[in-house]
Specification:
five-stranded mixed β-sheet; globular
Amino acid sequence: MKSALANVKIDSDNYYYKFGLYQMLAHIYQFEKPTPGIKKVQGQVSILFRQNIASIIYPGPDLTLNTLDIPFVCNTLNLSEINAKLEKIMMVTQYPYFECDKQVMYQRLGIKSYHQLSGTEFTVLRYCGKGFRPRDIALILDCSEKTVNTHCRNAMRKMGMSKRVELYQYATLVMCDEGRERATLCL
């Protein structure tokens, strides 16, 4: 159990958030069973919990890092829903970085593929993270500002966010480490 939690880091100034999250993770690791039929990940997988985001960092070939970002907004969830989300995050760490078929992984995790961000929603999210306003993004993508706002609203819904500020915080955190190969998985 301790070796598994050694790869988890919680980056928060809130003591109660850190303490509660560590307690829930310790409880999950205590009862964790290996999942059959999963190819083990080569190297150490690390998990970093930050504000509104859980990043799973996979070591890649040639000392590169691949990151899978999972929106982790808990302010509207109860404890059992948070626990279920944490269990899914721990299950994702057992899979190689999108090496297996995405549909199989979605099936095993119990998520629908239409709950994932579309290519345009992810592009809008990246521009938001770079500090562009909806009007600027509309000019870049050659569409209306209303369309950009619709993509933002759909992305917020899929990621479980209720405020535009949460979307901007998430996008900024995702874009701060842009040098890595990144993907977003909505649970």
